[in-house]
Amino acid sequence: MPTPDFTPEPVPAPTPGLTPGPTRPPATGSPASPSSLPATPSAAPPTPRRLHLAAAIDLPGATRADAFLPLARFADEGLLDFLTLGDSFAVPGLDALSVLARLAPETRRVGLVPTVTTTHTEPFHVQAALATLDWVSQGRAGWRPGVSTSGNEARLFGRREAVTAREAWEEAGEVVEAARLLWDSWEDDAEIRDIPSGRFVDRDKLHYADYSGTTFSVRGPSIVPRPPQGHPVIVADVADPVRRAFAVRHADVLLVEASGREQAAALSAEVRDEVARAGREPADVRVLASLTVELSGGEQSAEPGHGGGGPRPTAHGPHYRGGPVDLAELIGDWYAAETVDGFHLRPAEPGRDLERLVNGTVALLQHRGVFRAFHPGTTLREHLGLARPANLHLTARAT
């Protein structure tokens, strides 16, 4: 692991009340299915509570996928659950999903979560690309569904007029449901690779999706076998009511923005209640606090308004500015109070702040027994303690 560029003070004794990290990987089972299909309760026993950490590796203006490789390796070495990479039709740049597919063979355990815009794109192609990322990464793929609402972006494709945010996010929900049916169009053991008979797949274990949405329909089956995770993990934020409605119905990981521990606790409770009202099991989702971090090179206290009392609210969301130790205190304090399941951290300067985060904040949390010393499994679902979904076609047939 690279050497930090600050001199740490003597490490304090473990903070009372903090929950130790896990000592064994979680069991697996089946989570709830999409809202439009019969739900299948998880068969997995409760897993030990653990802190989850993720980081963004956005590099505006980057023109080569290799530019992201040092950041991805830092996230991997820091044992983070996953990294995110943003994308939008409105901003010129590299395709996030393609970049992370390039980084997958160069990383070992960290989850890979690109933003994938569902507006103006074919759901069949979206699901096939995500399934491929899950195979390339050996079960570490996730995705942040995104939408497009501007006329300029619509003219890039010339297929339809711009839509409202509500219409776009409702369509994104339909894309998620169609994608899950397409991922499950192959049973796990559909591939037989029988050389003597020349049969690659057992056709009796392929299924049609037959999904009709408001603006599209797909039949299937997929051209890619069922992903190693069953369904790649969905990450979504709840920054406004429209996105929040999507997230509570479909997301596995919900990102909330809070400038204080009490606010984070209230938001977490609210979204979990909404998850339950959507017919899902709140225990099957993870709620992470999302904030920008700007880390100094020393151990001075956080600037006023940025310390243990919470990050400073800004027009772009909560913003923490201070030392790595103070950030560890903030994370440990919020986690010990059971306000959130973890944090999604957005480095203000990725090349600088991610290194200080891993070598400073994460190292201290590990020393205190708050954060893991090893990944609990090999897939992103195992990192997050989420069960592998049952095949929706088999569930529907049984029902």
Structural descriptors:
399 residues, alpha/beta, eight-stranded parallel barrel, 11 helices, two-stranded antiparallel ribbon, globular
Structure characterization notes:
It contains eleven helices and 13 strands. It has 399 residues and is of the alpha/beta class. Helix 3 (123-136) crosses helix 5 (165-183), helix 6 crosses helix 7 and helix 8 (324-336) crosses helix 9 (350-367). The radius of gyration is 21 Å and the shape is globular. The protein starts with 51 loop residues before the first strand and ends with a helix. It has helices at 69-77, 96-103, 123-136, 151-157, 165-183, 241-250, 261-277, 324-336, 350-367, 380-384, 392-398; strands at residues 52-56, 82-85, 111-117, 142-146, 191-194, 199-201, 211-212, 217-218, 233-237, 253-256, 286-295, 319-322, 342-347. The protein has an eight-stranded parallel β-barrel with strand order 1-2-3-4-9-10-11-13, surrounded by eight helices. A two-stranded antiparallel ribbon has the order 5-6.
Secondary structure tally, helices:
11
Regions with pLDDT < 50 over 5+ consecutive residues?
A: 1-46, 305-309
- End-to-end Cα distance, whole Å, is 50 Å
What order do the strands of the largest sheet run in, or round the barrel if closed? 1-2-3-4-9-10-11-13
- Largest sheet descriptor: 8 strands, parallel, barrel
Tally of DSSP β-strands:
13
Strand content: 15-25%
Order of helices and strands: EHEHEHEHHEEEEEHEHEEHEHHH
Query: Helices and strands: which structural class?
Result: alpha/beta
Mean pLDDT reading: 86
Q: Radius of gyration in whole Å, from Cα? A: 21 Å
Oligomer: single chain
